[in-house]
Amino acid sequence: MPELPEVEVTRLSFANAIAGAAIESVRVGKALRWPLGTAPQDLIGRHVRAVRRRGKYLLLDLDQGILLMHLGMSGSLSFSRRSCAPGTHDHFDLQTDQGLLRLHDPRRFGAVVYAPGEDSPQAQKLLGRLGMEPLGPDFTVDLFHAGCKRKNSAIKQVLLGGQVVVGVGNIYACEALFMAGIRPTRKANRITRVQASRLHAAIRDVLSRAVQQGGSTLRDFSSAKGENGYFQLEAMVYGRKGSPCRVCAQPVRLLRQGQRSTYWCAHCQKA
DNA sequence: AAAAGCCCCTGGATGC
DNA sequence: TGCATCCAGGGGCTTT
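YS: structure for the whole thing
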């Protein structure tokens, strides 16, 4: 489910509400991708200072240590003033004096990991190799182009890989490549400076528009307030195999790249 | 070192 | 209706 826009929409939907909250109890349900990394009761009494995002990770800053949260493929968070009994797929609860933060994740590819700090080995193992934040000031055309030139794989794979730029998942990689008119299979190291510039702009544009639309709700994503996203209605190619391209009316094509589906338009993406 | 493949897991859609 | 198969928004780890 969650790419950068969905994670950011989630963050925005509960960051203010949870700021300053004291942790009262922690419930760990069925196993997620990794163990919590500390005894749940050790978190009791600590305060949530802020909620940040790095790539597709959420970072809950505690007054001592941090909680790294990842939504995997099917995860979503909810934050509610009133708590209620957990459902089948509710695998992590953080009960605070300001409300209950709950992770719902049917497939359990998500994770909640405690680390003593952002620079700790536990955190760096997950965050250490992440590329540039696409909506941040450090994501420049020059650095993006240089990053592409270092990669000998398909540009679609580079976007998904997260070592050059983070947060771009399958939906937004397809959409950005369409907007930039670039073939998904193009070798990244053969992208010209002009193409890199177009793709850079497309990535920023599609991600920021998606945040404004509340993300994409394909199956069951919603923000921590329960609000659905609407960007999927604006998708030009993703999930539209065989349907007419919204620009040229040629049928949208589907191909496999690294076990993932790539949607694209052969007529509009010739670069 | 870098790239490609392999899994983790559940549920919904599709086809017979 | 039932059952098998395929597919899904990710990404760390293992194998080439």
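YS: worth flagging: The longest strand of chain A covers residues 48-54.
IM: good catch. Also Residues 1-3, 6, 33-34, 56, 70-74, 107, 109-110, 125-126, 160-162, 169-172, 216, 218-219, 221, 238, 260-261 of chain A lie near DNA strand C (CB under 10 Å from a C1').
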